[in-house]
């Protein structure tokens, strides 16, 4: 599959935590960990498991920057 998003960062899944309908998937991308909230159905369809490889695809319009 190809995707138009340019902010694709490969990493390793360090945790998959399912809730009632939504799961939190934590991906280590070289020492920094990003967390995605996706449906439990998506976790199952993608076969996401701790220790597996995955890409964090970041939509630029949803990234915020802050400074002190």
TrEMBL record:
InterPro entries: Mo/tungstate-bd_C_term_dom (IPR008995), Mop_domain (IPR004606), Transp-assoc_OB_typ1 (IPR005116)
Keywords, in A-Z order: Molybdenum
Mop domain ranges (all copies): 2-67
One Pfam family of this chain: TOBE
Keyword Chloroplast among UniProt keywords: no
Domain of life assignment: Bacteria
Species the sequence originates in: Aquamicrobium terrae
Protein name per Swiss-Prot or TrEMBL: Molybdopterin-binding protein
């Amino acid at each position: 599959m190809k995707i138009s998003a340019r902010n694709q960062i490969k990493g390793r899944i360090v945790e998959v935590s399912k809730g009632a309908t939504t799961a939190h998937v934590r991906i280590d991308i070289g020492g920094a960990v990003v967390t995605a909230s996706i449906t439990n159905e998506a976790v199952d369809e993608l076969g996401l498991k701790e220790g597996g490889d995955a890409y964090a695809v970041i939509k630029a319009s949803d990234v915020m920057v802050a400074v002190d």
